[in-house]
Amino acid sequence: MFHLAQGLYNNWTRKEQYSILILGLDNAGKTTFLETCKKEYNMTSKDLNKITPTVGQNVATIPVDNNKRLLKFWDVGGQETLRAMWSEYYSQCHGIIFVVDSCNSLRLDECSETLRSIVMDEDIESVPILMLANKQDKPERMEVQDIKEIFNKIAEHLSARDSRVLPVSALTGEGVKDAIDWMVIRVQRNKKIDLQFIDDTKDDHKMCYIINIIKDSITDRSIS
Ligand SMILES: Nc1nc2c(ncn2[C@@H]2O[C@H](COP(=O)(O)OP(=O)(O)OP(=O)(O)O)[C@@H](O)[C@H]2O)c(=O)[nH]1
Ligand SMILES: [Mg+2]
């Protein structure tokens, strides 16, 4: 009887959990975005001035939608050597946030080629993709429309998949909640998703394994 009651209780209280990958070139603002998300949802977050380049990953689970659902964010380092490992995460993710530095026009080609390689990967078929035109607080930013044009060319490969470009400032928090709201709706709508619930320790083990490989291959930068 106790086990039955406990089973029912667990069933009622478990929450849907979605894994969201945060990708983008190094220095785009991924970790800043994650820390600001934590702050926006009243979680303890790092001092934004103390964020260092990520070697490996940062993980945070944030309750959203009035605490009814969980988004588990995987912020993966964007340095070129680390990008080769991104695809290891694709089969586990329900949504992708691709962060772009709107102030660095010199890296736009690199940025669009990187996004193209993500979009073309069959493991992320049907996964919603949100592109964030970050650093909108800076006067030298590119117009969001220009960034949209680049993304739209790549979006031709997305078929009927949900995709969007939104302006944000990870530093000031402007647009961050709108971005999360968009993603929460999309991951729920996505019929093909395979829902994970709170007990996803197997995935964590897999991710830890991946991260150890990454750490072995990088020695010269500090872990954030
Ligand atoms: N002005 C401004 N600066 C930002 C913003 N977002 C990030 N930055 C700055 O950009 C730099 C890089 O930010 P990170 O969050 O470390 O970038 P990242 O994408 O995680 O970089 P990697 O971990 O190397 O892949 C830091 O100096 C941040 O303070 C923003 O919205 N506005
Ligand atoms: Mg980082």
Automatic annotation (TrEMBL):
InterPro entries: P-loop_NTPase, Small_GTP-bd, Small_GTPase_ARF, Small_GTPase_ARF/SAR. The keyword Nucleotide-binding applies. Mg(2+) binds at residues 31, 54. GO terms for molecular function: GTP binding; GTPase activity; metal ion binding. GTP binds at residues 24-31, 78, 134-137. PROSITE patterns: ARF, RAB. The keyword Magnesium applies. GO terms for cellular component: Golgi apparatus; nuclear outer membrane-endoplasmic reticulum membrane network. One of its GO terms (biological process) is response to endoplasmic reticulum stress. The gene is NDAI0E03010. It comes from the Eukaryota. It holds the Pfam family Arf. Coiled coil: none annotated. This is ADP-ribosylation factor-like protein 3. Keywords: GTP-binding, Magnesium, Metal-binding, Nucleotide-binding. It comes from Naumovozyma dairenensis (strain ATCC 10597 / BCRC 20456 / CBS 421 / NBRC 0211 / NRRL Y-12639).
